[in-house]
Design brief:
100 residues, 12% strand, binds zinc ion, two-stranded antiparallel ribbon, single chain, 5 helices, alpha+beta
């Protein structure tokens, strides 16, 4: 885990990260920025999972690790939905006939 100073973040944003998303409207880019600025940076989801286990989530929300489209690193954020990925994953041992 590491953090970025605000000056470091601003420099990286204006020199490297802003250009690929420059075609997006400002309010859409603001959403990307809110998911990245001021957040702790993790190199892998495995590194973030012990932190998620320790950290309390906002009331009624769930903590999740996500890959940041802006900087390409992993951040932790609050989500309204529980961890849906294992439920969405396709079980290779389960046939279509058994499910119905
Ligand atoms: Zn980021």
């Amino acid at each position: 885990m590491r953090t970025r100073t605000n000056a470091e973040w601003q420099t990286l944003y204006h020199t490297r990260w802003k250009a690929p998303f420059a075609h997006l409207p400002k309010h859409v880019r603001a959403k990307l920025v809110r998911g990245c600025i001021g957040k702790a940076v993790y190199d892998s989801v495995e590194e973030a999972l012990p932190v998620i286990a320790e950290m309390p989530a906002r009331p009624g929300m769930y903590l999740k690790a996500y890959s940041c489209p802006l900087c390409g690193c992993i951040h932790i954020g609050n989500s309204r939905t529980p961890n849906t990925m294992p439920q969405r994953a396709i079980d290779p041992n389960k046939s279509i006939d058994a499910a119905s």
